[in-house]
Amino acid sequence: MKIGEITEVDRRANSDQTTHLSPGFWFLLAALAATGAKLLIAWNTIGTNDTVVFFLFGRELSIHGLAETYRRVILFNHPPLVAYYLRAIYDLSSLYFFTHNNITFAFLLRLPGVIADLVSSLVVWKLADAMGDRRPPFWALLLFALNPISLMISGFHGNTDSVMVMFLVIACLMTARQQPILCGLFLGLSWQVKIVPLLFIPVFALFWHNRRQLRPFIAAFLVTTVLLALEPLIFSPIAYAKNVLSYGSYWGLWGITYLIRISDFQHLSRISFFGLAPAATIISNLLKLVVVSFVLFLAWRRRGSDAQGLVVTLAMSWLSFFIFAPGVAPQYFVWLTPFLLFLSPTFFVCFTAAASIFLFVFYSTISHSWVWYFGVSTNALSAVWAPWNLLPWLTLIVGSVLIWRNNVPQQSSALKLLSPAPVAGT
Fold it and tell me: How many CB atoms lie within 10 A of CB 36?
């Protein structure tokens, strides 16, 4: 072969390499594009009334400190890690550099969630790599990178939910890499953002116990928890436990409690998360008991699962939470999407579509426009957007039933409630 022919072959090979880019490249490009869109939204909007509430929390924390804020403000129900960040960005946003460059508290509040979404996308890709032939299809992973749910919530809403999800998916990745200490560390960090990951301690604990690595996991989890919660545990333990650990979401805006509320039962028509009627409190506690019982059952029956099986267990646990929870706020929808992806890509797509429709209606309603800048959610406006909540809720119910029906014939023996044998694999 002549030198000119060799050069032509090399040129064509290089051309093929540049035109046929790897799936990882397109996934990363999609994740970066979504990140850019979220940053643009966060820079040019205020968000929802949660942003204002967090600003007031930041001011209270800056003036009175964490321990006193737990005692003074009953509505402050966030763990210490969030409190420290709120206090920091409240002080930073008043400095000359930040005000001069229009770096607002509202933007700084949403910045960690935007970054967390990018990190979660990369972790989900790595977690998918660890699944081998059970890896979700590329189109589903690409949709997760571009997820309109996280675009609206992390870019516009103004809360910390995406950060909690990031730590939780990293903890799952550590199970795939057989790293119990790092798993405990990141699980501990996740519940220092939102307390809901405490629900999954049995899932992780039994997973590591089955591998005889429970002690390092528990040690890392407890050290992380104690260190980050040390201040309120010492100076305001009662107020901390009352505000944070006993928090429950709004009654009457989601699922079962929404249907009860619109049925005009006496004393059950109030929308609130405190001061509820005794009957509402009893129903809420019973629904929570159903969720906790189901998660404990799943943790025990599926303790022999592999790393992907653990993610599927978490997805099933999230489904029980969202179906039976007394209340679910719109920003909670980012909680289950990465786990639903590994349970069923088709289910993930259906829920993403249903939840996206609801979120668009919700943010447009509270913003009084399709062009969002500042949205204020009120009980009066809930009459407009709350019925749309039924779309994602019913999607979760139908999807759960279909998955259960499709798996019962193959796993009927493994689903016997009293069987002591763990479910193996996924």
Answer: 12
